[in-house]
């Protein structure tokens, strides 16, 4: 069984792609919506939450867990997780999609991811000649999580990205929530966009039954609305409590 994790709805698009790729596999998705947005939390708090959340996924039977969250990936949880499941982070895989000829890269992320400089570190090894600018967008994941109207998102992006509209070859949407506002980013920036949604996994050892469980630490009513509004999914979801 594959576990997929995010602070909220950001990982759903990657979950969708993984399910299309492996329709026979069983999936369990956990959204830690009691604590979203992760991008404003400190590292110790995040690592504690991640340990508990990934452990919950493992207890449900997940032997591989995709951390479909750049902020969580930027904490280094893949190396630090104390458990048996294999943890797959998404930052290095996202960077692998950037063409080798790219000279100036704009990384748009949560404040935590931007301040961690994780993208800069990975890209310094992968594309040492490239110039990388990391920018934290402190409100965007929250706005998307709360189904904020597209026009408001566009106005927010115009204000935040005013200084970065020229001179970049491409932008990385380095938060899995951000592709829900892909059209607004495209309109404001007008350059190619890369996201964290193309993560390759090894073939599963044994096929499952194609089951899907979706759980949240927050409100099931809100999650059901988000699933319908953003993914067009009418699927049951469950509320869980994780003991701290
Ligand atoms: N979707 C997450 C990411 O990729 C986190 C957004 C948040 O909770 O701040 O970083």
From TrEMBL:
Please give the Gene Ontology molecular function terms for this protein: amino-acid racemase activity
Please name the InterPro entries in this protein's record. Answer: Asp/Glu/hydantoin_racemase, Asp/Glu_race, Asp/Glu_racemase_AS_1
- Per its UniProt record, what PROSITE patterns does this chain match? ASP_GLU_RACEMASE_1
Work out whether the entry's keyword set contains Electron transport.
no
Q: What is the lineage of its organism?
A: Bacteria, Bacillati, Bacillota, Erysipelotrichia, Erysipelotrichales
Q: What is this protein called?
A: Uncharacterized protein
* Superkingdom of the organism of origin: Bacteria
The keyword Isomerase is annotated on this UniProt entry: yes
Q: What organism is the protein native to?
A: Holdemania filiformis
SUPFAM superfamilies hit by this protein: Aspartate/glutamate racemase (SSF53681)
What Gene3D superfamilies does this protein map onto?
3.40.50.1860
* Key words of the record: Isomerase
